Amino acid sequence: MNTTANSALQTADRQTPAILITGATGSIGTELTKTLSERGIRFRAMVRSPKDAQTVAQLAGADVVLGDFNDPVTIAHALRGIERAFLLTNSSDQAENQQLNFVAEAQRAGLKQIVKLSQFAAAPDSPVRFLRYHAVVEQAIRESGMDFTFLRPNLFMQGLLGFRSSIIEQGKFFAAVGDARISLVDVRDIAAVGAEVLVEPGHVGKIYTLTGPQALTHVEIADELSIALGRRITFVDVPPAAMRNALAGVGFPDWQADGLIEDYAHYSRNEASSVEPGVEAATGKMPRSFTDFARDYAPAFN
Q1: CATH code: domain of residue 42
Q2: Do 117 and 153 meet the contact criterion of CB atoms below 8 Å apart?
């Protein structure tokens, strides 16, 4: 382990915070660590690389450890002295096993509460592989005896950034979703909920389904983007096979491309259209609208 990592570990051992954040450098983790820092809450972040460690360590109140979900020894070290943990892994074909590894180590470490980032409509019998794996991990957490809180967000508004190139270059984006409505949620609101349930009492045993304040079709999403960007953006519905080929063509591995097609089949059946009160119930604030997102992120699409 390099000097930076050793220094971070030594700092963590000297002044142990109560909260561990995994997935600290992704879209949600970045917002969550920033929110905790701004609230003056000390936390430990588990990251994979020294470069990530240096980035997170710049936040006030942050302690950083290097850890790997495939290495139980590093997980155990990251959990040392921790009372509450936020569980989030990168999307990969190993995610279920990695999260189960974390749950087992957390149980051994005597963790009091685990806050898991799950997914809207997680269920063991779902036809969507991502929803099945989240349900498996949720059940393992229930059976562990640890206190838990589950966050089940719908499709991220920031997921639209994945279409950034075609929006910029063609004024179009594509998906196999038809005219189904989806109650998309802003990752900033997911992070706000995460911070609240990690810091404040009263959230043990709760399952928060997190959505935005309205359910939109992709045509309506394109219309909102058009207003925010000041130019015409068009949504083009495509068959699932065409979307699958496009994902493969830009480098998505088979497991992820297939999983995303399952996700979009789920969306296309209007199974992700309900507007839920989870954000307001947890934080006391209404979630951001897609109009808010489009305005705030307009520079990313220009």
Answers
A1: 3.40.50.720
A2: yes
